[in-house]
Every structure is written in structure tokens, then in C-alpha cells.
Amino acid sequence: MTVQPETATAEESRRAVQPLPIRVWGGLRHFGRRSPLSAFWGCVALLIVAMAVAAPVIAPYPPLKSDFRSMQKAPYEEHLFGTDQIGRDTLSRVIHGSRTSLIVAFAAVLLGTTLGSFWGLACGFLGGRFDIVSQRIIEFLQSFPDLILAMAIAMALGSGTGTVIIAIAITRIPFGGRVIRSVVLSLKEMSFVEAARSLGASNMRIMLFHILPQCVAPYLILATTHLGVAIIIEASLGFLGVGIPPPAPTWGNMLADALNAGIVPPWWLVLFPGVAITITVLAFNLFGDGIRDVLDPRLRGAV
Amino acid sequence: MTAAAEAAAQPPVLEVEGLKKHFPVKKGLLSRQSGKVYAVDGVSFHIGPGETLGLVGESGCGKSTVGRTVLRLIDPTEGAIRLSGRDVTHLGKTDMRAVRREMQIIFQDPYSSLNPRMSAGDIVGELLRVHDLGNAAEREERVAELFERVGLSRAQMKSFPHEFSGGQRQRIGIARALALNPKLIVGDEPVSALDVSIQAQVINLLMDLQQEFRLSYLFVAHDLAVVEHISHRIAVMYLGRIVEYTDKRTLFTDPQHPYTEALLSAVPVPDPRLRRKKMVLQGDVPSPINPPSGCHFHTRCPYAEARCRIESPALREIAPGHTVACHLR
Q1: A192–chain B Cβ distance below 8 A for any pair
Q2: Are A251 and A276 spatial neighbours (Cβ–Cβ below 8 Å)?
């Protein structure tokens, strides 16, 4: 019997030579069709990011400037979202607040998830005693509620943007560590890793070329879903007064200020920062879910 | 001269002597060793140039472990492995890297054995990159050559594993194993995950390649029909030991060990009218953690005697080139 070569179809070879921008565009279209709802929330998240970047341009007033002619006024034409008790424009403060929220959330998640992921990578790959000790440390971190842990760290380190970032980052480490470790453990048993070993590939090579690339998808999923959590923790820290110190416009700080404005705080001081937090968190969470659905077919349909 | 006799006349490519692999069974918080899995328990064989040794047995009898230990993917507990006369049992990492060029493996599962994020060309060319051979253009040329040799097209080098069928994936696995003209290829059930029609294609490809490059195969399988087709000699394993070891024809026409007899009687015959005396084994394979005393097979052997329960039978040569481990032969 002769061996029949199974030749590539035209479709296959065409797909292989497409340039990158077209492949990216195709991927985005695929994403939009697969889960239109997450694509919508992805756009919302993108708008929020754009708002944060362009805050000084969009905001009608500087966020710290008091307008003494209108103090604690309900929304009207000049101040669309009203003003607080010392006459600062709520709309401008909400817009500028998105900057702090996003910078802190992105930095904390990038730092925490990345650190955790590399830790998990090392745990899964090295195994043995290092893994056992690391897992106990991670369990120790995980045994505290996120907010309590972040508060304790923020209070211990003193206030400031940097400390808030570090405090939130530390609470994200266990998640990266756990998830990536489990991914690595299952990859390690795949026979392509054994194949690489039988070719004489070094551990470093196996790690870099065979295991690390497969961790990118779970890492992305993890990072986007945790952005929302990071935003909530940041706002909570601000609300509790252990976040970024007061004059800075953050959503958490604004809610805390609202409480000082009277026994029953004026509705616009509570509603607008609250809605901002809700929409942002919702956008990043649902966008993250969508990414997970597309990148990780095993979880499709799962809650 | 038959291929088997010819092979026997030359110095063997692979010699394995008294190979043992015991896996520790750990228990509890402090990882106390509470027992051992006797996965491979004293296995010896040799393979000549251009020869195929089939290694058959039930699931869990240690045949895959033998294949992996030979390649030093698992370190043996005891015994010696010699590749072209050179002892590779205790070679360090650096020395082993050079030896790895000469022996390769083809895996059972064509899905998990190819990295889904690497292109087919990169997968096949990885060996060349690992050993830093040639420049990029030379490597690409070699990979293209290999692709054509295993029946794939040059254009498919840029495709990713998920774009191939199972049989094509297995061809990529074969091309990867061939990249540096190895002397020995261990096939760990290389066709058992494929459709029957594709099995034949892949087996024939392997046999053509053997002729062309004088490859030696250690062919691990549980499908006797496949093994009969490709092997020159066959070793039958049961619970970590070889129980019968002879050339293909003798094994199929004149099996001596009761276990071999049972295996052969389980091979389906494509003739519905043929009524054969069937020998069906009762029960399961005993646990390799706690293997039976004496002859490992006595718990399921229809001919077992008192002696089989106490004394472990040694492999004896009952005819030239035919060894059996049974008290009764």
C-alpha cells in the first residue's frame, strides 16, 4: 500500500499567510459574534478607559476647584451632577475618579496577578517541598477576606497611591498562584512535554516554549476578571479612609465625603460615584467572562 | 536469511539487562514510603539494527514504563541499558543530551503529543533547534524533507496541530522522531489511538522508514494483529516481567506460556463459522503493588500447580531463540 499524502486545502494555506492586523480583526469579529453581550461590555470598559485618559479634557471643571457660589447644589445646568458641600463639581470629580480607580486597579492586578502567576508557574514546575511550602503561604493569604487583608496592609504601610496598589496586589497573588499552578500541573503531564524532554530540551526551554505560552490565556482571563474586584477594593479602602488621602478625587473618597454632608446625604453625592463604580465593575467582569468563554472552551456554559 | 536471523548476527542497537523500575507509594503528611509499585521487575531483551521488537501485554503490565525507561525519561531503579554497546543507564544530563539524538519516541495520543501553540514545522524542527544544528534555512529545508518523507506537504509546515487529522498528526510525530536519523525509535502504542484504516497507513509508513534508514523499533502495543504485522520478535509481559520471548512466527504458531495462549485466543478471527477452543482468563490483573508469590500468573493460570504458588519461574530457553518463564514447559 502506498502512502497517500493528504494535501493542505486552499483554505488552510490562506489562513496561514494572513497578516497580523487582519487576523486580529478577524479574532475581534469572532469574539463579537460569539458573545455579543461581553463585546458590548468590552466597549463600555474601553469607553471608561478613554474617559480616564482624557479626563482633564472632558471634565468641565478642575476636580479640586471649589465654586463658592454653589455649595451642595442639586444637579442643574451649570453643574450637571450637582456639587458637594464645598462646591466641587461632582461630574468632574467622577470623571477624574476613574483615573485613580483604573490606575490603581490596572497596576495592582498587573503586579499581583503577574507575581502570583510566576509563583504558580514555579510551584507547578518545580513541585516538591517548594510547592508544599508555597501553597501553605498562599492558603494563609487566602484565609483572610480580601478587604480585611488589603486594609491591614494599607494601614501598616501608610497611606498613598503606592501603598494602595501594593495592598491590593498582595490580595491578588493567591489567585494567580493557584490558577496558573493547576494549569502547569496538567500541562506537565501532556506528552508533548515528555516529547520535548526526549529531544533533549532543557527545563528552561520546556518552561519557556512549551508551558509558558499555554498559560497566557488563563492569565488574561484571570487579570480581566480581577480588575473589577480590584476597583471595588480600591473604592472600599477610600470609603473607609485608608485609601488614597482625601483631596484626591476617588470614587471611594467621594462616597466617604458624602457621609459627612449630613445625616441623610444628598442623593447626587451618593448616586453618581456609586453608579460609576457599579458600571465599571460590571463592565470589566462581564468582559472578563466573555474573554474566558472565547479563550477557554472547557468552561463554556459553566457559571 | 530472515531479517530476525540477520539482526541477531550483528551487535545489538539496544541491550537491556535486568531492568527494574519500582515507583514508591507515598502516604500521609510526611510522605512516608508505604510501599512500592513493581512496574518493571527484571526485564532483559535486545534489539538488532533494522529489527522490531514488539512488547505486548495487558494495560498496567509495565510495557510503557519499559519504553520510557529505555529512553531515560524515567530513571531505572536497577539494571543496565546499553545503546550500541555504550552504557547509558547512569549518564548525566549533558551526556544524555547527545545520546537523545539517537533514540526517539512516538507517542500514543496524537492530540496531546503535539504542542497546540506551535506550528507543525516548528514541532518537527525543535530537535534541530535544541541541538543548535544548521542555520534557519538549512533547518527549514530538513523539516520540509521530513514532511515530504512522511507523506505531508511542504505547505502544511505553517499549519497548527488542530488543523490536522489524527493520522496526519501521528505523521508529524513520526517526522519529529526522525529529524536526526536516530538508530532506535520507541513506539508507545503509536497506532492504538487511530482508526483501523489509518493504522494500516501509519504502520506501513513505519515499516518503509525502517527499510530505508535501518531503524530499530521497540514497539509497545496491546493489539496483537498490529504487533504481528510489524514485529520480528515479540516479548510478552505480565506484571512487570517478560513471560515469553521469541520470534514472531514461533509465538503465533507455538505459544508456550499459558498467558500467551490466552492472549492469542482472544484475537478475533474474521471467520464467523470458525469455532475455536477459547481460553478466557478469569479475574483481573493483580496489583503490581502487591504481586502474587511465586509465578505472578498463578492466580489466573488454568494449569497452576502447588509449585507455581511458591517458586518464581526463571526465563528458560526451551528451543533456540525461544525463552519462556513457566515451570510446566
Answers
A1: yes
A2: yes
**CATH, residue B76:** 3.40.50.300
Q: Which residues of A touch B107 (CB under 8 A)?
A: 191, 194-195
Give the chain B residue nearest A197 (alpha carbons): B73
CA of B277 to nearest chain A CA: how many angstroms apart? 34
Residue B186's DSSP bridge partners are B105, B218
What does each C-alpha distance from A243 to A121, A166, B210 come to in angstroms? 31, 11, 71
Q: CATH number for A37-55+84-299: choose from 1.10.10.10, 1.10.3720.10, 2.60.40.10, 2.50.20.10.
A: 1.10.3720.10
For residue range A198-228, what is the model confidence (pLDDT) as tens digits?
887 888 888 888 888 888 888 888 888 888 8
Residue of B nearest to A199 (CA): B127
- pTM of the prediction? 0.74
pLDDT tens column, B22-50: 888 876 666 667 778 888 888 888 888 88
- Which residues in chain B have Cβ-Cβ distances shorter than 8 Å to A213? 117
The total of structural domains in chain B comes to 1
Residues 79-98 of chain A whose Cβ lies under 8 A from any Cβ of chain B: none
Q: How far apart are CA A229 and CA A105, in angstroms?
A: 8
